Request: fold
Amino acid sequence: MMKKSIQALLASVLVLLSSCDLLNCTQADVSMLRMEIYDAAGNKVMLPDTLTISACGTDQILVNRDVNTSEILLPLSYHAQRDTFIMRYYGKYYSMQDTLFVEKTNDVYFESPDCPTVMMHTILGASCTNEFLGAVEVASEKVNFEEVTHLRLIVQGEPSASRISHEE
Reply:
């Protein structure tokens, strides 16, 4: 009886160990587009007023009323070759809106049969309308699970940007 219990315990341990491949899978399942905000002189800045970002063609709000923003994380679509984001920036006495266009490829990443597939992207180009954004620069074209800046958003003039220290 004791021998059968030990065999059952060992069999259970083997089954659990063989199913642990999922623990070695990529932990993140969504690669995020990381953007930082700069002024025309190349200084990282913070947007002190309210920023709301939505995906064009949907009613989905991706960033809702963010204040003191210097970095933005957005998900990219899995199938479209171009993502369009509506960026609304507003304060007490003004409201501005820009549209950000991100041209990209969608690359399926397969790790192993035990892991789910995930989507990564390659940025081909980015552009914007020019109300509070002056330009967009591609800093890193590979959107995967590395925490790097992919796009630099260059703001133009006031009232949008106040300088942040380089120690942050």
User: Anything to note?
Assistant: The chain has one domain: 26-163. The CA atoms of residues 10 and 16 lie 10 Å apart. Confidence is low (pLDDT under 50) at residues 15-22, 159-168.
